[in-house]
# Entry
Amino acid sequence: MNEVVHTSPTIGSNVEEIVVKNTHFLMWDIGGQESLRSSWNTYYSNTEFIILVVDSIDRERLSITKEELYRMLAHEVWWGIEIIVFFCSKQSNNITCFLC
# Structure
C-alpha cells in the first residue's frame, strides 16, 4: 500500500494476493476485452466483492461498461452479494463518470 504502480490494460487475467492488516485478499484482475467477457463467469465462484475500474475518459466505452455490469449482476451467483466497489480512473481531466 501507499505505493504508485504504473499499469497497462490487462490482457487475459492476473492474480495476486494482497495482505492488509492481517487480512488476505486474493485479487483477480480480469481483462475487459470483448473476447474475454464470455469467460468472466468462470471467476464468480467464492467471490465476495467486485471492484470495477473504468477509464472514465473513454466516453464511448461507458455505455458498454454499463451493459456488461448489468449482465454480470444478473447472474444468480451475485444474488445476496452486498458489496460492489466502482472506481473511475483517469479523472485528471475533470470528467465526471456517470455509469447509471
Q: What stands out?
A: The chain is about 20% helix and 30% strand. The chain has one domain: 13-89. Residues 60 and 66 are 11 Å apart (CA to CA).
